[in-house]
Amino acid sequence: MSGRRVRALFRRVVQEIRRDRPSLGLLFIAPILVTGLVTFILREGETPPVHAVIFNQAGPPGVVVAGALRTTLEADGGSATIVPDVDTARAAVSDGSATVAITLPAGLGGGGAVITVLTDGLDPSGEGSQVAAVGRLLAAAAASVTGISPPTIDHTTLYGTPSSDPITTFAPAIVGFFAYFFVYILTGVSFLRERTGGTLERLMATPVTRGEVVIGYILGFGLFATMQVALLMTWALASVHVPAIGPIPDFWIGLGIPIAGSAVFAFLVVVLTALGAVSLGIFLSTFARTELQIIQFIPIVLVPQFLLSGVLFPVDSLPPVVQRLAKIMPLTYTVEGLRQVFIAGADLASAALRFDLLVLAAFAVFFATIAAFTIRRDVA
Question: Residue 152: beta bridge partners?
Fold first, then answer.
């Protein structure tokens, strides 16, 4: 082994990385930003205020418990309102005017009372923290009434599919994120190859306009992105049983994730997400010179969306300043839209789903527009 040759190779690697500013940023700055963001979320995040409606079947003891609960919730920035019946309570949760509906049962003054707490079920992890907080407050309120033992909390949801499969609650976020992630990689790398191979430079030397270039590439990449989404959705929703063959035991092909709404609307949400990823990939690839630089955008562009859009942490539990950032991220609306379809069974009659679809389409158009302005004739 020649030490001289090893030192020469060492110097060459160091010099190349030192000249590659994106690589230096990925190496030193990106880890600080990502770990700092996660730490900020965990330290500053909190359970959002609880806005409750209360249906009291317990008579005078329920009035005392409801009053104590209202005082505590209002002190924490929440609210509590008495409603006349269960249907009104469910309607308040359905239209979003309340986050939880609480039913105080008859016999609250005795032992073993079961208090029903209803949420909409669209954000299981976020609602879990709220229900836990309500449970603690109810126990404290019940303890303030002489003779009332701590109640049992029965958490039910307005929406959702009857399944004990743990993937059910996480499916919308998982499907949306990985569709966005893989389409971005496909588009960014493929468009970069068009640039470095000279194809785009030759196109720009013709009368073709930048807008025509972007639209053409979006349609081309969009076709394969749509095929990828169709395959992903089929794999996620379908489940085919393959019987045992000889020594091979029976098994299932597909995840078989239950969905309350139509797969067509879920597919529409993911397709619009994929088209936005295509536009984003084209836009960012105009700033890259190598495939590695396409990957280097991931910690800056995709990881924050993974952390802030509801995939990992509930949006309502994020620090306020970070919640505002989440509202300008496409993946936030993907996750919300897919939850509406997967869990609530929403269709185009739902204003929330129509809004999410409109925002996703707007993001796709926005990135396509700015991509057209960033393409240069000296692209090689």
Answer: 114
Q: For residue 144, give Cα distances in angstroms to 63, 82, 103, 126, 152.
A: 12, 19, 18, 28, 16
- Please give the Cα distance from 294 to 109 (Å, whole number): 64
**313: three-class secondary structure by DSSP:** coil
Q: Which of 33, 32, 45 is nearest to 323 (CA)?
A: 45
Summary mean pLDDT of the chain: 84
> Is 341 strand, coil or helix?
helix
CATH number of 51-157: 3.40.1710.10
**What single-letter DSSP state applies at residue 1?**
-
DSSP characters over 66-119: HHHHHHHHHHTT-EEEEESSHHHHHHHHHTTS-SEEEEE-TTTTSSS-EEEEEE
Taking the model in full, what pTM does it have? 0.84
182 and 167 Cβ atoms separated by less than 8 Å: no
For the segment 251-302, what is each residue's pLDDT rounded down to a tens digit?
778 888 888 889 999 999 999 999 999 999 989 888 887 787 788 888 888 9
Domain ranges of the chain: 51-157, 167-241+248-374
Q: Cα-flanking dihedrals φ and ψ of residue 311, to 5°?
A: -70, -45
| Dist CA 167 CA 304 (whole Å) | 23
Q: Could you give the angle at which helices 210-237 and 167-196 cross, rounded to 10 degrees?
A: 150
Q: What is the spatial distance between Cα 363 and Cα 329, in angstroms, rounded to a whole number?
A: 9
Phi first, then psi: give them for residue 46, nearest 5 degrees: -150, 165
Residues 296, 22: contact at Cβ < 8 Å?
A: yes
φ, ψ at 2 (rounded to 5°): -100, 120
